[in-house]
Design goal:
The chain is of the alpha/beta class and 239 residues long. It has helices at residues 24-39, 41-58, 63-73, 82-88, 100-107, 123-131, 133-136, 151-157, 170-180, 192-196, 222-227, and strands spanning 9-15, 113-118, 141-144, 160-166, 184-189, 209-211, 235-236. The chain has a seven-stranded parallel β-sheet with strand order 3-2-1-4-5-6-7, sandwiched between helices.
C-alpha cells in the first residue's frame, strides 16, 4: 500500500467465502456431475484425485491448477480443456447460502466488512466477483495462500481495535484466536464438510459463537455480544 496509513477502526469484520457465504460443497458436486456426464467416470475420477492431492499439497482448492496437471499427464485429452471455461463462467450467485449478501450488508452497519479467503490467483477472485460478494463489500477482498499465516498483513491493511472472524473451519478460527487473543471474536457457521468433520468441535480455543446458518447472524447484535464480554466464552445460537 502507498500513501498515508489506513485509518484504524474500532471493529472490522473478516468473512470467509467457501462454505461460509458460498455452498462450496454443492459447487464441487456440480463439477463432479458435469465431468462425469460430459467426459466419463474415468476422467472425472482422475481429475478429482489430482485436485484432492493438490488440496493436500497447497492447503486450498486449485481447480484450474488441477486441470493443468491433468493435461500434463493426458495431453491428448484436449476436450477436457473446455472445463476451464465452464469453471470461470459458473453461476456462483446461484450457490450463495440464503441471506449471505444480506449478512454482509448487515455487518457493514457496524464496521468495515472484508472478505478473507484462501485460494489461487484466478479462480478464487473470479468466484468472489461473479457471486456478487465482492460488490457487497465494496471490493475489500483479501485472497491469501494461508490466511491464518497472513494476519500481520491483514492488520496492516485493515487496522482495528477488535476483529470479528466468520469462518466455517474450526481450525482456522482457533489459529486466529491464538494469534490475536481477545482482540478477535470468532464465529463458526456450522455449514459444509469442515464444520461437520469428525474432531472439528475439538479445536481449541473453541469458537466464541456458533450458528447453524450464516443467515442466523441477521438475528443477532454482534457488537452488543462482543462489547458485553470482557472475556468471551463459547455461545450457541440456533435457527
Amino acid at each position: 500500500m502507498t500513501g498515508d496509513s489506513p485509518r484504524k477502526h474500532d471493529l472490522v469484520f473478516l468473512v470467509d467465502v467457501d462454505n461460509t457465504l458460498l455452498d462450496n460443497d454443492r459447487i464441487r458436486a456440480d463439477m463432479q456431475a458435469h465431468l462425469g456426464e460430459r467426459y466419463g467416470a474415468e476422467a472425472r475420477d482422475r481429475y478429482w484425485a489430482i485436485q484432492e492431492q493438490l488440496f493436500v499439497d497447497l492447503g486450498y482448492r486449485d481447480y484450474l491448477g488441477a486441470l493443468q496437471r491433468y493435461r500434463d499427464g493426458r495431453p491428448e485429452h484436449i476436450e477436457l480443456l473446455a472445463v476451464a471455461s465452464w469453471l470461470v463462467d459458473f453461476p456462483f450467485a446461484e450457490r450463495l447460502y440464503p441471506g449471505a449478501l444480506d449478512v454482509l450488508r448487515h455487518l457493514a452497519r457496524f464496521g468495515p466488512t472484508v472478505i478473507l479467503t484462501d485460494g489461487d490467483v484466478v479462480f478464487q477472485p473470479r468466484k468472489v466477483q461473479r457471486s456478487g460478494i465482492g460488490a457487497a463489500v465494496e471490493g475489500r477482498v483479501l485472497v491469501y495462500i494461508h490466511k491464518e499465516k497472513s494476519l500481520p498483513d491483514v492488520e496492516r491493511r485493515y487496522p482495528a481495535e477488535r476483529y470479528v472472524l466468520v469462518d466455517d473451519k474450526p481450525g482456522i478460527l482457533a489459529a486466529v484466536k491464538r494469534h490475536w487473543g481477545e482482540r478477535v471474536f470468532t464465529v463458526l457457521p456450522r455449514q459444509g464438510q469442515f464444520a461437520a468433520a469428525a474432531g472439528a468441535q475439538a479445536a481449541e480455543p473453541a469458537p466464541d459463537l456458533a450458528v447453524d446458518h450464516i443467515a442466523d447472524l441477521l438475528k443477532l447484535d454482534l457488537p452488543a455480544l462482543i462489547g458485553g464480554r470482557s472475556t468471551p466464552s463459547p455461545l450457541k445460537a440456533s435457527a
